[in-house]
Specification:
Blueprint (H helix, E strand, L loop, with lengths): L16 H8 L9 H9 L3 H6 L6 H7 L2 H10 L11 H13 L16 E3 L4 E4 L8 H6 L13 E4 L3 E8 L7 H7 L2 E10 L4 E9 L5 E7 L9 E8 L8 E9 L4 E11 L4 H10 L5 H5 L2 H4 L1
């Protein structure tokens, strides 16, 4: 009895010879087209691109060195494209620098009070005495005693009560709305404080929407300071709501003697923390370009 027309669809079809040959071949990573491999590598965090992927083979090394890979990576990470197409150092440097860049303007008072709004201005001043002159060598030799990095040459000083503020607009700094809403990268805040007995200072950080609604906030420090010593305070924002467009910083001081503040930092890294980026530059024997693209404070 002849089979019906619908039965023919169940018969196995003979594969073409070229397909049978392809199926018999053992496909390896070497058979992946260059365009596809570049796309895959652009998804790898830059730390592992340098420390691992670049050392796999000569082909991968050449691909990691391509400017187009780093340009595509910057675009995928949501950065505003400000570089040029002149060669590898531009896009690689831009990628690392943008990830580790301090968004706080005039963090140590090098430009006096530019970019800061202050209340009780007469109570604030800028000092070159970050460490007491007779204790500088003591601090440097006793590495376990926390103190600001040697590059920090100035600090804000308040001898009464005072407030100073700064607002960071993320879009102006190159961080797109899509990056902040979809990736929600870690926002890392750090600050150095020093105060005398019976003095108090705090840093209040707010994540604001486009309409300046507070989406999340924190107040530092959350532990007592050591009087007469520098302390570094830090906080990492994670899992915050979408819609963050601004970051507000507010230093509030209540002092009967003096309070010093310096080295205020806000960094946004879609692929990790500041320490990871610094460790990458230090461990990698590849290019001094990493020393060029990471700020001096991150290298020490």
């Amino acid at each position: 009895m002849p089979s019906s027309g619908g039965d023919h669809c169940c018969l196995p079809l003979r594969q073409p010879s070229w397909m049978r040959s392809l199926l018999r071949k053992k496909v390896t990573i070497s058979d992946v087209p260059e365009e596809l491999l570049l796309h895959i590598l652009s998804l790898v965090p830059r730390k592992y691109l340098v420390l691992s992927c670049r050392r796999v083979c000569s082909r991968w090394r050449d691909l990691v060195d391509l400017p187009i890979l780093w340009k595509h990576k910057c675009r995928r990470m949501g950065f505003r494209m400000e570089g040029s197409d002149s060669g590898l150092p531009d896009w690689m440097t831009f990628c690392f620098r943008q990830s580790q860049r301090n968004l706080v303007k005039n963090p140590c008072g090098e430009a006096f009070f530019d970019f800061w709004e202050s209340e009780n201005q007469p109570h604030w001043e800028v000092s070159k005495h970050v460490l007491l002159w007779d204790c500088t060598q003591f601090y440097e030799r006793c590495l376990r005693i926390p103190h600001p990095l040697r590059e920090i040459q100035r600090c804000f000083v308040c001898n009464r009560s005072g407030i100073k503020r700064q607002r960071i607009t993320l879009r102006e700094e190159g961080y797109s709305d899509r990056l902040m809403d979809e990736s929600r990268p870690k926002i890392i805040v750090k600050d150095w404080h020093y105060y005398s007995w019976k003095c108090h200072s705090q840093l209040r950080v707010k994540l604001l929407s486009a309409g300046l609604e507070v989406l999340q906030e924190c107040t530092l420090p959350n532990a007592p300071f050591h009087h007469g010593l520098w302390d570094e305070i830090s906080h990492t924002f994670e899992g915050y709501p979408s819609g963050v467009r601004h970051i507000d910083l507010e230093h509030k001081v209540e002092a009967t003697d003096l309070v010093k503040i310096t080295g205020t930092r806000v960094t946004i890294d879609p692929e990790g923390t500041q320490e990871e980026g610094a460790a990458t530059a230090e461990k990698s024997g590849f290019p001094n370009i990493f020393n060029l693209c990471l700020p001096a404070m991150s290298r020490l």
